[in-house]
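INTERNAL AUDIT FORM
Audit reference: QA-55
Scope: verify that the stored structure record matches its stored sequence.
Auditor: D.O.
Record contents follow.
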Amino acid sequence: MAEKTTSTVPKGQKSQFAVPYYEISYDKFFQFGVSVDCVVFGYHENRLKILLIKRGAAPFMGMWALPGDLVYPNENIDVAAQRILRDLTGIDNLFMEQTKVYGQVDRHPAGRVITTGYYSLIDIAKHDPHASAWADGVYWMDLNEVPKLAFDHSDILKDALQILQQRVRHQPVGFELLPEKFALADLQALYEAILNESYDKANFRKRILSMNLLISLKENQKDVPHRPARLYKFDKQRYDELIAKGFSFEL
């Protein structure tokens, strides 16, 4: 006979078994599925985009979704996130961070599946995704044009965006997303795209330069339809210090 454990439903919480006290066989606890869903934000030409797949398998066949799939029984969840993203989109060795865990009982029509969200922010120009496995297509879509996604992926995307926006207010971003030499307007456009806010040009310039984060170069922009602006590059040592200590990016 399978070993049993007795569980108590917290006061005020409805039990799916409709009784306040119950016994469940241990084997019931090993009938859950575990998955990961990857939120990959891309930055390109002053626009923030999201990497989506067109599902080529049930459930929700033909719908837009985040790259995600089930974790193998013998697989570490972080390893699974890398594998699933590679299998579906061809993107490999991408640094990703966990966001939240989603465990709604009815979030997957096939049964109980608990998923962990991951997110990353990359330069689109440095990656070439392509559909593979059961994905019918892989697309970069403007964040403000994303339709209703399969499963609860719209919620996972919303939460990941909030976490990204909180992060960029306390850690400098741009080192991996901008070219080595850039104008202050390029950096401002990056922050405005991620935070969905507009900044006064003078205030932004003053705030950024006060951090001593940038090295002013004796170079200006070339081949631009306006007055060439001064170019800058990041001070790597100072950049790493600010990431370690944290900073407040508030204008």
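Auditor finding: record pair retrieved intact. Residues 1-9, 17-21 have pLDDT under 50 and may be disordered.
Action required: none
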